[in-house]
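Input record (Table S2, row 461):
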Amino acid sequence: KGQMMWGGRFAATPSAIMEEINASLDIDRRMAEEDVAGSRAHADMLAEMGILSVADNEAIQGGLDAVIEEMRAGTFPFRRELEDIHMNVEARLKELIGEPAGRLHTARSRNDQVITDFRLWTRRALDETGQLVAGLQAMLVRRADENTSTVMPGFTHLQTAQPVTLGHHLLAYVEMLERDRSRLLDCAVRLNECPLGAAALAGTGFPIDRDMTAEALGFARPMANSLDAVSARDFALEALSSLSIAATHLSRLAEEIVLWTSPQFGFARLSDQWSTGSSIMPQKRNPDAAELIRAKASLITGHFSALQGAIKALPLAYAKDLQDDKRLTFDAFDTFNLCVRAMTGMIETISFKPDAMRAAAAKGFSTATDLADWLVRELGMPFRDAHHVTGRIVARAEAKGVDLADLPLKEMQAVHSAITQEVYGVLSVEASAASRTSYGATSPVRVAEQVAQWKQRLRVE
Ligand code: ARG
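Output record (arginine complex):
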């Protein structure tokens, strides 16, 4: 086992368990490309400022080309005893080009190096995840488009409340996901400052140009405080909290899929691709992916909480606690992306059952509000009185075991004599949904407008 890169003052190498707890390579090797990009920008800047010779920079850049090639070819010799990706790249560079490799770390520390890599990684991840979310939104819009006038029960307290349209219900998730996406994009803007050049924590006496490295790596500007630069992880917390909120939305939709596909609701059927069977009960079609999304939403929230806990009592500047930021963040992104992909697949192939939805929408006196509204509109009754009269009519219908639309007129007139045959025009679930035409409301006309807008915004065909 070779001497550690920092081994100058040590007589013995770390114990095997020390290595085990300390090594982060299995996780941070995912930042290999970012690490090389950071080193390239740093070396170019050192050469530009005359801190590194042009020849040494050329050797370093050529060596980094070779490193990247080895990584892409799968031949890069990753060595766990070298702790992390930064040490692995530098050690390999040394093997490939010799002495100039040792000059690359001038005016740099792993503390500013790692956080530069991590910000670059997270910036790209936020962008990719944003695109996946947009894909799910587009799928929901497509299904909403097919169902602008499909009537289903709208619920409060999970009790039938008023008829709504399925398209409207699906678009509610498109709205939530749009806010989720904007949180992710927002986070990417705020994180886009460059910590490189902060060195260990105090900056450096070498005449470096931090604007140059910031620009080369696509950052808006260098971070203004070197202590903050190596200590700050709020960008990761922000990403995790945004993912956690977004996962919460996926989980709500997942829960509705579980309910809707249950035999008791029967509103929808998952395709074979997205259903699982039971090892004992042949009739089962289980919504496992939806259930796993529910559970994984908590896992992501747990990752946020774990990182927040690691940071909240950490004195400035760097401490090794911060190494676990990547494990949590990478896993949160992986888990979330998997959930979005699964949700997109389920929504793409789920078949809705309009007849069952309609029948359920008609149950539970769901058009009672329409009756009350009719009393207000046609008889000039104050809404509170209309509410009371309607309540008494509902009680009669319930006693007779019929829906409002099937209650004979004379029963209604027994409660209020001025009610006429016209009232039946508002008691069907279709009429009820169609009548709600205020901005943002559930009527097929309004929903079709919203679908058209979303198609344009998300460029759905
Ligand atoms: N692997 C380390 C991390 O992820 C790199 C920084 C090491 N810095 C140090 N002072 N030991 O945090």
